[in-house]
Amino acid sequence: MTTVRTTTRDPELLCRQLDHWLNAKHPGARCRNVRVPAAVGPSGETVLFDLAVPHPAGTARQRVRPCVLRLAADPEASAALPSYDMAAQYRTLQTVAARTRVPVPELLWLEPDPEPLGAPFFVMERVDGRVPPDVMPYTYGSNWLFDATEEERARLERATVDVLAQIHSVPAEGGLREHVEAQRAFYARVVEGRAPSPVIERAFARLADIWPADPGPSVLSWGDAHIGNIVYDADFAPAAVLDWQMSGAGPRELDLAWLVHRHRCFQELATASGFPGLPGFLDGGRIAGIYAELTGHTPRDPEFHTLYAAVRHAVLMLDEGYRQVAAGERELPADPDELVLHRGSLEALTAGR
Prior knowledge:
By secondary structure, the protein is α+β, with helices and mostly antiparallel strands. The protein folds into two domains: 11-125, Phosphorylase Kinase, domain 1 (2-Layer Sandwich); 138-350, Alpha-Beta Complex (Aminoglycoside 3'-phosphotransferase, Chain: A, domain 2), CATH 3.90.1200.10. It is 40% helix and 14% strand. The protein has nine helices and nine strands. It has helices at 11-25, 86-99, 150-167, 176-191, 198-209, 253-272, 284-295, 302-326, 343-350; strands at 30-35, 45-54, 62-71, 107-111, 121-125, 219-221, 230-232, 238-241, 248-250. It has a five-stranded antiparallel sheet with strand order 1-2-3-5-4, sandwiched between helices. Strands 6-9 form a two-stranded antiparallel ribbon. A two-stranded antiparallel ribbon has the order 7-8. A hairpin with a 7-residue loop joins strand 2 and strand 3. Helix 5 runs antiparallel to helix 8 and helix 8 (302-326) packs antiparallel against helix 9. The two termini are 27 Å apart. The model is unreliable at 1-5 (pLDDT under 50).
């Protein structure tokens, strides 16, 4: 499994810049224990640090608060998305916190000016807990989720679907047509000046053939509805829902299909490598049933949304593959479809299987 370099920033310089910015916000404030986690995706930069502020009594003691800095992607490195609107992400988090019971980290500051750190950013509290690993995927074993009992994983499933139900209680402007058009535009940017992907183009054509007669009302969509973007507590309940850079508007099924698809990809990777994985986990039919029970809305058009989730993921993988080639981290394959790791399942879905 390969990753692409997502930053060229100097951590020591970033710490000094952050110190200067924090001191302007809160005289005497300093950042401590700055570190960049290794297991994060190429969706902007995540920096962990401890915020130390003077004790109000004026003593030498300091109050320390664990924090997270979310910084727009480094323009000198490889960015996974065409733009990073940090203010929009911040507003989305504010909306979710105000209008739902979805647990999100407490927001501290938004800085839209790129001058202090070289890009817009925001700061929020850091929430303790456990995150299902992506590298290596949790389906490979030797992690807390794989080692959990069936009952514990069932609790996690239900609590995760409840998160989606809460998010979807917020109406939003925009619909399925706009969502798909945005994905087509993203794909066009990815292949500009490069070889197109035949498997992705066939899948887009198939989506047009099976377009839903009634996509349903538009709601707030998390966008990256993946259990790897949730911090869970010891009781397998969500403690913090993260990564809102792909949030937008559309039918509820966008998030539901993405949740199931991301697990299916990890399950396929595990079985292809000779591991049993978690074959009964995040089953599409069961997830749809839980959602209907919690909301009264029965998910519809599964063929379309299952394929569309696979297409969205394929475009992201093609983009990452081409960025790896540009960074000199892999050779350009003769067939661009080799950059799509779940090519086989995407071809099967496109064929109606």
